[in-house]
Amino acid sequence: MPARFTSLLVGLALGLSACTRPPPDPAPAGPRMEIDYEAARAMMVDDIVRQHRAQRRQPGMPREISAAVLAALRATPRHEFVPEEQRPFAYADTPLPIGAGQTISQPYIVALMTELAGVRAGANVLEVGTGSGYQAAVLDHLGARVHTIEIIPELARAAAATLARLGHTRVETRIGDGYAGWPEAAPFDAIIVTAAPDETPAPLIAQLAPGGRLVIPVGPEYGVQDLLLITKDAAGAVTTTRVTGVRFVPLTRERD
């Protein structure tokens, strides 16, 4: 249930015709092209700013992506959270495969969801759907106390190892069903869900602190879903705001 299929972009597939004779011997490998990841990351952040300026007048959209969120994105090496063969594309604004049939969300959606969550230093935050660990790393750079849960064991273990290797030792990881949240770590100031249920899980609303914010895609499996911002006031009343249309993989659940 990691994050994934968040854009409405459609990829183009290139078909190769079959050859009737053996292919020629491959040319000798040349020097490997070095990628300036820091420059690519800066360009990615600039693109996020441009995209948001074009969309921020839509109802429900935040006025801007804050300087703090943009700084966290600049500080997080997205190429470290994708397979090596995907690294040349790490800073394109598109989801990328990370294994187990899942993807890492496109950078703009990560920025938007993080901004909507209103995360501040010291906030207690739950992420449902660790994936490769990228969103958790961004939240850690914001100074949050991050709890992230992933239902696919191999992804959860790989993400935990990547986060530890990159120094995100404060992030708490768990293998399990994120639909039920993380009750013993609640209440949460913010909850970010990176896969789409057909309705908002009641346990997540229950674990949201007064004044807290839940950002979640809700809608049909593999269809266009609604990205929702759900807030809870001091009296426990809940308000739901639709932000935009998105596409995420469905929220996977444990079955009896």
CATH class: Alpha Beta
Number of helices: 6
Domain unit count = 1
Overall morphology? globular
What is the level-2 CATH architecture name? 3-Layer(aba) Sandwich
Helix content: 25-40%
Strand residue content: 15-25%
What structural class results from the helix and strand content?
alpha/beta
- Average pLDDT confidence is 89
- Biggest sheet descriptor: 7 strands, mixed
- The first-to-last residue Cα distance is 18 Å
Sequence of strands across the biggest β-sheet: 5-4-3-6-7-8-9
Summarize the structure in short:
The protein has 256 residues and is an alpha/beta fold. Helix content is 25%, strand content 22%. The relative contact order is 0.16.
Q: How would you sum up this structure, described in words?
A:
With 256 residues, the chain is of the alpha/beta class. The protein has a single domain, classed as Vaccinia Virus protein VP39 (Rossmann fold, 3-Layer(aba) Sandwich), CATH 3.40.50. The chain contains six helices and nine strands, in the order ααββαβαβαββαβββ. It has helices at 37-55, 67-75, 107-117, 134-141, 153-165, 202-206; strands spanning 96-99, 102-104, 124-128, 145-150, 172-175, 188-193, 208-218, 225-232, 238-246. The strands form two sheets. It has a seven-stranded mixed beta sheet with strand order 5-4-3-6-7-8-9. Strands 1-2 form a two-stranded antiparallel ribbon. Strand 6 (188-193), helix 6 (202-206) and strand 7 form a beta-alpha-beta unit. Helix 2 (67-75) crosses helix 4 (134-141). The longest helix has 19 residues, at 37-55. The chain is globular and about 55 Å long.
